[in-house]
Input
Amino acid sequence: PCARLGITATRKLGHAAIRSRLRRHCREVYRRWESRADLPCVDIVVNLRHPAVVAEFSDFREGLEGQLSRLLRREVA
Output
């Protein structure tokens, strides 16, 4: 009865350690996001792109939280 998160990370991003690190970052941002409980019951799929590889964690967090907030605002409207 809650939103689920799915993450895709292709081999184009880098070797397994890089892909795993990005998936861990993504799960951690989603886990810590305060408005997670307010999301509708949907499946969220995050397609990681190359800019995520070189981004700092704070930039990564801001980008993902921004996209999640857009989803939340879209559902409310």
